[in-house]
Amino acid sequence: MADTKTPAGRAVHPAVGSSSGPLNRRRTRKQVRATAGSGRMAALLVSPTLLVLTIVVLYPTLMALNESLYGAKGLDPKTGFISDTEPFVGLRNYADILGQAGERFWNAFWNTTFFTVVTVALETLIGVAMALIMHKAFRGRGLVRAGILVPWAVPTAISGLLWRWIFNSDGIANALIGHQVLWTTEGFHAKVAVIVAEVWKTAPFIGLLVLAGLQVIPKEVYEAARIDGASAPRQFWHITLPLVKPALLVAMLFRCMDALRMFDLPYILIGAQKHSVETLSMLAQHEASNVRFGPASAYSVLLFLYVFLIALTFVRLLGADLIGDVGADTRKRKGRRLRIPAPRRKEVTA
Amino acid sequence: MTLTEKWRGGLLYAGVFAVVAYCLAPFYWMLVSSLRRTSDIFDTSLLPSSVSFENYRAVFDPAQGFGRALLNSLIVAGITTVLALLLATFTAYAMARLEFRFKRLILTLIIATSMFPVVSIVVPLLKLFTDISWINTYQAMIVPSMSFALPLAVWNLTTFFRQMPDELEHAAMVDGCTRGQAFRKVIIPLAAPGIFTTAIITFIAAWNEFLIALSMTNKPAMQTAPVAISKFTGATTYETPFGSQMAAGVLVTIPLVVMVLLFQRRIVAGLTAGAAK
Amino acid sequence: MKTRITRAFQCSAVLAAAGLLLSACGSSGDDGSGQTGATSFEGRGPITFVAGKDTTGTLQPLLDRWNKLHPKEKVTFIQLPTDADAQRQQMIQNAETKSDAYTVLYLDVVWTSEFAAHRWIDQLPEKQFPLDKMLKPVVETAKYRDGLYAAPSTSDGGMLYYRTDLLKKAGITQPPATWAEMKSACAKVKKLPEAKDMSCYAGQFQKYEGLTVNFSEAVNSAGGTVTDANGKPDVDTAEAKKGLDFLVDSVKDGTIPKEGITYQEEDSRQAFQSGKLVFLRNWPYVYSLAGKSEIAGKYAVAPLPGLNGPGSSSLGGHNLALSSFAKNKATAVDFMKFYTSEESANYFLKEAALAPPYTALYDDQALVKQYPYLPVLKESILRAVPRPRVVQYGDVTAAIQQEAYAALNGSKSSAQALKNLQKDLQQKYAAQ
């Protein structure tokens, strides 16, 4: 892919040279801002997305929020029928989750957190390694690139079944390690099984996005670094990593969001109600499947808050890298880091 | 060619091999399992003792409607991807290039919307779609899919666009391009690998969506591939149709990969074409 | 508004204190209006039949026959996922949205109470179905609080599969009727050189619905009960403990192989077929499949063993129910009668080996010749104890799996597990 891009890069970069440099940079930005009335323009560009998301998500979410304030329908002992209406219970569902069902909730909470931290960390390592290897030119790269899509392309339910088969008591995993581990029973090994399956499936997600991030780095940057005599690890730490960092962070953010809501995989691979692998989504699912939509929604809302908090932290901590020059405060804080690529770019183009 | 370079070459191929093995070994197991006869499905030999296509025949049994299901998946995931990418491109451009208030808030909101667990929105959505008679329609699957496709696309495109130095665009505008032309002719071609990857990832995410697709349809002619797979069974209620499910898994995955291979060059070439001029 | 919230809070606080979450608060709504007896069924026209995939290829021909006879009241098949939980989920979603897409539902026997109590399905006129010709335990699965809410269609009962060749070689002529006999038979068989690596027995002990089935069978076979007919639990008893202890001790002493706690139906069938087990508890479907495996001709079936004599099976099977929100209910009832007639049951048994609800078919010589296990199955079903018939079946089975699994994997003593289970079930029962 890099070769298709190079001519464009060559064609345009010289032109950049004449107008680059921090000073010019700032001025260009101001000009853009001044000429466009960018607020209105932005509103125009952003509103379709917001509109669609409002319709698709806001409505059901508000419904779910409302639902979480209602209890399960009661049974009339005389007629034997369940009443048609759900009683309004206020925050009772939340109180029950944190009180009565507290032990189960916190167990699921820690499982969810543990899975998220471990899988995202492993996926990042493996994904970045994959991307670095794939970024090198070699024959058949297109084929290999399509090949690493495979784990991500296999539907989750199917990959759950596949791994359940692999981790069966008579399965290939036990045959390979030559020792019978009962993976699907309670215990740490069940967690391991879930992590292995999850990392396999989603490392390519990070790998692909990082690879794309690598491919849009102008080649000249590396050339300059090589002229500078930077060693490979130094190149990686000081050039590659900072430049792909936004793509990597976004990939990690989405992985975190997904991992926090993990459901199918532990459910299919290990089974329902196994303490070792029970996640928050599984608790919500358990309530919903027993027709207690109120408590189910309450679990979802709690999970949502947790996910939201993590996302907010991500955006706060890494705002400058992810979104760019948002507030002046972030720019000051992140200034040093942001500037690293810029002078190099200048060297390159000068 | 120095020794170190030879070493490096060797190391690269070892790395490539490791990546391929990592990604494809479990898939190979899926393939092998799908080629076993039902009676020796519990085998753990690395090659099937006798290759059988009975599982594939089972999948393409006309009663399963699997071909139709693949087509439905293609339509749903395809439209979702195109729509999401289109809307996301505008939004991502604004995010990457324009200065305006509440940017961070909007980006946070966009990602927040994709976070609500589907189990909890499926019943309200179902009620809504029943009221407006959207049951058994493509839009009933496409519209909810936007809830995860759009944030994914917006965020990724924003980072890729941001990675482009804005001097490029400015230079083009100095040359007489309008802002839109500059964006289309300079930024899009340069960000092509990013756009393409975003498209693939969005497409696959939509392709694999299950719960919504299952709930919004009750006609076989409208079901998507993951839904169709969930309906495979063995010859009796208790028998696990593992073989045919694996066969279906292979059949769902391979077209995706082939498609990516075919489009890889063409789309990127198309996107890049503008810049050469 | 404020008073409403406070009241709701007080109300639920009291209930929660008593370990309840349900009832009272909700009963202020419209309760029991309408359906006290069987409603009259009106409307004729096209209907749908909703079930998991027809695994046998026998369903469509039957539907075709109906459609040919009733061209203006055609029935369309709506196929649900294979997974039973997913089927139930779809049916509930359909009911929650009060959709008329589903007409006749193919219900697992354990869902009857829940669907009836929620009024997702209509009460049926008993007189229109030949219930007196059916096995009584099967009819019971279709009832809720003495009302008929479903038409029995197929049944299922557990049986003991055993290796005739090995037993004979070890000099045992009769299949075991008690657990002790089974263990001693195993001891003899395992002295044979070809059987020295075999395990004795397995059922389904993974943490899923199958564990509820196997646990209930063990408890019932030792003379205990899990719940009575109304769902009142009585499981913390000496008898129940003997039942659970049989399973727990068997896992401990290796009678049940240690991977047994990962077995579902198929894993245990596989173990039996590949010669790893002498005895297996499983459903009738194994009979013909094992005939195509390496142990063909070397096995037979017997009733499940128990503590002091033959044990009792749990009941499986499916019933037909009528969705409350459907149109054309008159057609639907006719279709249900057609589908559950003795003639259809005969057809399903002959062509698809589905166990019929009709007593007479089990004694039909031609059929017995085709399916030698029929007499054993009849005995199994007649002695069967239904799984707890409660509205919140999902919670009850979850509690059973929870405690039984803890006892099996050794993290709790069986006494403790039963004590906890009794407490859990008591809470749920009181909440009804």
Automatic annotation (TrEMBL), chain A:
GO terms (BP aspect): transmembrane transport
Q: Does the keyword Transmembrane apply?
A: yes
Q: Which CDD domains match?
A: TM_PBP2
- Using the record's annotation, list all stretches that form the ABC transmembrane type-1 domain: 109-314
Q: Where in the cell is it found?
A: Cell membrane
Q: Where is this region: Disordered?
A: 1-35
The record's principal subcellular location, in a coarse class, is membrane
Give UniProt keywords alphabetically: Cell membrane, Membrane, Transmembrane, Transmembrane helix, Transport
Cellular component GO terms held in the UniProt record: plasma membrane
Q: How does it sit in the membrane?
A: Multi-pass membrane protein
Bilayer-crossing residues are: 41-62, 114-134, 146-166, 192-214, 235-254, 303-324
Recorded family membership: Belongs to the binding-protein-dependent transport system permease family.
Protein name (Swiss-Prot/TrEMBL): Sugar ABC transporter permease
Q: Which organism is it from?
A: Streptomyces sporangiiformans
TrEMBL record, chain B:
Q: Which GO terms describe its cellular component?
A: plasma membrane
Record-linked CDD domains: TM_PBP2 (cd06261)
Q: Where in the cell is it found?
A: Cell membrane
- Residues passing through the membrane, by range: 12-31, 69-93, 105-126, 138-157, 186-207, 242-263
Q: What processes in GO biological process is this protein linked to?
A: transmembrane transport
Q: How does it sit in the membrane?
A: Multi-pass membrane protein
Primary subcellular site in the record, as a coarse category: membrane
Give the Pfam families listed for this entry. Answer: BPD_transp_1
Cross-referenced PANTHER family, in alphabetical order? Answer: INNER MEMBRANE ABC TRANSPORTER PERMEASE PROTEIN YCJP, MALTOSE TRANSPORT SYSTEM PERMEASE-RELATED
Q: Which family does the entry's similarity section mention?
A: Belongs to the binding-protein-dependent transport system permease family.
Name of this protein: Carbohydrate ABC transporter permease
Origin organism is Streptomyces sporangiiformans
From TrEMBL, chain C:
Q: Which GO terms describe its biological process?
A: maltodextrin transmembrane transport; maltose transport
For this protein, the record's PROSITE patterns field holds:
PROKAR_LIPOPROTEIN
Question: Which keywords fit this entry according to its UniProt record?
Answer: Signal, Transport
Cellular component per GO? ATP-binding cassette (ABC) transporter complex, substrate-binding subunit-containing
Using the record, list the residue span of the signal peptide; answer none if the entry has no such feature.
Answer: 1-29
Q: Which InterPro entries match?
A: SBP (IPR006059)
* SUPFAM superfamilies on file: Periplasmic binding protein-like II
Instruction: Please provide, alphabetically and separated by semicolons, the GO molecular function terms listed in this UniProt record.
Output: maltose binding
Q: Which family does it belong to?
A: Belongs to the bacterial solute-binding protein 1 family.
The identity of this protein, by name, is: ABC transporter substrate-binding protein
Instruction: Please tell me the species this chain comes from.
Output: Streptomyces sporangiiformans
